[in-house]
Structures are given as C-alpha cells and as structure tokens.
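[09:14] KT: can someone run the structure on this one? pasting the chain below
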Amino acid sequence: MSLKAYLRDPILHQMYQQIRERGPLKSISLDLTHRCNIRCKGCYYFEEDMDKYPSEGNDVFEQFILSEKTRGTNFITIVGGEPSMALGRLRKLYLHFKLSVATNGLKKIPNEGLENLPIGVAVWGDPDTDRYLRGNDKIDIFAKALRHYKNDERAFFYYTVTPGNVDQIEGVVRRCIDNGNRVLFNYYSDLAALGGTFDHRIGFEAVSIEINRMITRFPGKILMTPYFNKVIATGRLYDMDWGYEVCTNLSTNLQKNHARLANGFPYNPHFRAYYADFKTTRRCCTGECRDCSSCYDTWEHFSWVMVNLRKHLGSKEEFANWLTTMYLFYVINRLVDTHKGMQLITQFLSPNVVDIAQV
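[09:31] RB: done, structure tokens below
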C-alpha cells in the first residue's frame, strides 16, 4: 500500500495535515544558563561538567538570537542549568521562536510573557525517591512543583522512571493527573553509579509494561504511545540499535560528528546543541563524551522515530506508529491544539493500542 492509501483513514489524515500545515521544524537545543538551584543525582549536565561554559552577557545573547533567526531556526528546546533562573532571557526567546522548556519545578515559571510555553516539569519518582535523587534527602521538590503548576495547561510532568521502582509509577501518575497535568515519561540513566534499583542496566521491560498500562488506564492523560514506549525501552528501531551511529540530534557544525553524518543514517541537518555561553556547541543534546548506551532520553528518541519515516511505510500499522509519534511531539510542544490533539491520538489508539504495541 502507499502513503495515499494510509491517509484514507480520517484520523491519520487529520494528524498528517496538521503537521504539514505547521511546516518543517528547524530545531536546536540551548542551555539557557549554566546555573542550577539543585544538584540531582545522575544529572547529565553536571556529570559531564557542562557548567564550565558560563552564560555570557546580553550582547552575546542578542547576537545568538539574530544568528539563529538568520539561520532559519524556528524551534528551541530550552534546558540547562535551570531555565527558571533566567526568566528575562526565556521571555526574550519566546518572542522570537517556538520553545519547549524543561524545569526542575523548584521555582515557578510565571504565565506573564510566557502564556503558551510548553513546560516539562521534572519528577523522578515517588516523594521518597524524588527527594533522595533531587532534593538531597531534604527538599520535597515534587510537592513544590505540584503547587506551582496546579491546573496549569502549559505544564506536563516529565517523569523520569528509575528501572527498579516500577511500583511507584501509578502513584506518581495519579498525583500528576489529580493536579490537572498530563504525564510524559523519561527513563533514568544511572550516570552517578548509584546501582541497585537505579541501574539502567537492569533494563526497562517492567517499566515499559507498566507505562502501557498507564496509557490504557488514563486515556488522554499520558503523553506516550505503546510503540514509542517500546522504541525507547528496547533501544531498537527496525534494524537499528540505539547509539551514536544512529543518533539524529548531533551538532552538525562539529568536525567530530562528520563521520557519523556521512554514514548513511538520517539525522536532523539543522541541529546544534549550544552550551550556556551561546556560542560553543557539544556533540549532542545530552553529552560530550558519555556512552550512548546509557541514553534513554525521550527527546532524542522522538527525533530518531521522526526522521525515519521511510522505515515505517511498509504497512498502515507501521505508518500509524510513525505518525502518532510525530504528532505526539507536536501536541506536547503546543504546535497543534493540545486538547484536540490528544483527543485524536486517544481516539485512534483506543481500538488499536494492543496491536500497535506489538508492531
């Protein structure tokens, strides 16, 4: 069958048309600041000393904005550091680009001047686990984040699941949903070598099963699909195994990446990952030297699926796997109407959820 035949499905057609109407994304990643108000165990940013590139002055920042607009950038993933500690610059970027921001939740990102900003609010487990990993065994950051973003339509909780704490998942999800927020899952990498239940080498099979249960149990509230969940948890996409040789979000201006970019696997040709000095770029979003086998980052895997449309054209089910993943990215980042978008995804997945999980 052909793409035209697959798009006879009215729901798939709606999703596909909305994506096409928004035009191509030309995306980058930016550390808005090198500062942070906490130190999470296993945070890739500080594990690789990425704060060695301190934020520059306003002249450099303004030049960065001008340069990226000239280059055609239209979407920026804002990380750090902690972006809530640089609100003036966040508002400035909001005026010029579509954004998505990741925050630890300790300090609220206000509505004023950021009314349609997608905000991924971190949580790493139930109150005890989250307090241990992120709050130095003292601060209940999860509770603070829930208060800050209660019923805030911009915000979703970006739940980084630790591989050996599957029993915590439903409780955390319920708290987020009861707070008026949706949930996107991330998968913990034990970069701090804590071991035990935090060791990503345990694998995420049990986590993946539980996430699929959450998708079914809380329709419209979980920002995942069974297929996308499977890709991240297994690190497998058709004949490809996840790693540097297939990673799609690599700084294309770096000589060190040129061999990878020439190996025949697709990639994001516009992408750069900028440090907080607004000039220097690193290998990829989440590292300079880290072993890619430790990377289960959801954002990276979104891109991996999105640039591999051709792999997914073998059947309607495979195309639907690609399209619902792509469309989900647009929904999360408010590039399409969030509520209507989730209704479309839920409507399509409801009768197909088991089949799609198995493809």
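[09:33] KT: thanks! Residues 26-314 form a domain with the TIM Barrel fold (CATH 3.20.20.70).
[09:34] RB: yep, looked fine to me
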